[in-house]
Amino acid sequence: MIEIKHLYKSFEDKEVLIDINATFADGKTNLIIGQSGSGKTVLMKNIVGLFTPTKGEILYDGRNYVQMSKHEKVEMRREMGMIFQSAALFDSLSVLENVMFPLDMFSTMTLRERTHRAMECLDRVNLTGAEKKYPGEISGGMQKRVAIARAIALNPKYLFCDEPNSGLDPKTSLVIDELLHGITEEFGITTIINTHDMNSVMGIGDKIIFICKGRKEWEGDKTMVMSATNENLNDLVFASELFKKVKKVEMREQE
Fold it and tell me: What's phi and psi for 88, nearest 5 deg?
């Protein structure tokens, strides 16, 4: 479990995050949503240690990440898997070598063991047979699946995903969502996804935190989104014509 307590982040005299309190549960897909510039990316960067909070606590199973020494933070990061907005694969490495990269860097496994583990991860994301290809030879959706395989190679306790569906078509986005959700439940991972994709929200939003202008304005789950009364959240959710139609149907049924 990850807990955020009274988190603030300022850049010079500009407050970007203001008194954020949130809990992200194990075995759940926890989503951070908000408009561009809302502070959701800054929040994730604070959680993973890319930024240092101005004030507040970030607790990993009770361990305060903010107060850890540099060495302790390095050790802590070995428990984290990360999927970036771009797949961030190494073009000069094969698919298999990309997945093996964190194992080569951080594990004490033999080459045979590292290769076996990487192949297990590729099988989990349905990419068996693609291990000898290079990133430039596979589709964007396949690249994202390679990134997921790499992120879970070290059996992380915590998985962070920054806009994992960015640049993907709706069908491929659905595949990525289902894959992330399935892996989260299967391994009991604390997964946090930064997104503005409302299909992801409605499909895999076990826990949703809505950030607006640096403040947490709403939290709930996918079953609560459609009936939320927060106007800023509704502006985000119902910007899509599809969700506007769904809302109208629900309102008629309630009359």
Answer: 55, 40
Name the CA radius of gyration of the chain, rounded: 19
Cα–Cα distance for residue pair 67/238, rounded to 1 Å: 40
Residue 137: burial class (beta carbons within 10 Å; 0-12, 13-18, 19+): exposed
CA–CA dist 17, 9 (Å, integer): 5
The residue-averaged pLDDT of 37-53 equals 92
pTM: 0.87
Long-range contacts: 73-76, Cβ < 8 Å, 24+?
73/49, 76/49
CA angle 104, 106, 110 (to 5 degrees): 50
Residue closest to 7 by CA, chosen among 209, 157, 200:
209
Comparison of pLDDT for 168 and 123, the residue scoring more: 123
Q: How many residues does the chain have?
A: 255
190: which residues sit within 8 A by CB, 6+ positions away? Answer: 1, 2, 24, 25, 26, 27, 28, 30, 157, 158, 159
Distance CA 131, CA 192 (A): 27
Per-residue pLDDT at 100 exceeds 90: yes
Which stretches within the chain are classed as H helix? Answer: 40-48, 70-77, 95-106, 111-124, 140-151, 170-187, 198-204, 222-225, 231-237, 241-254
Question: Please, what sign has the CA dihedral across residues 183, 185, 188, 194?
Answer: positive
Q: Terminal CA-to-CA distance of the chain, rounded, Å?
A: 41
Sequence letter at residue 121: C
Greater model confidence, 140 or 250: 140
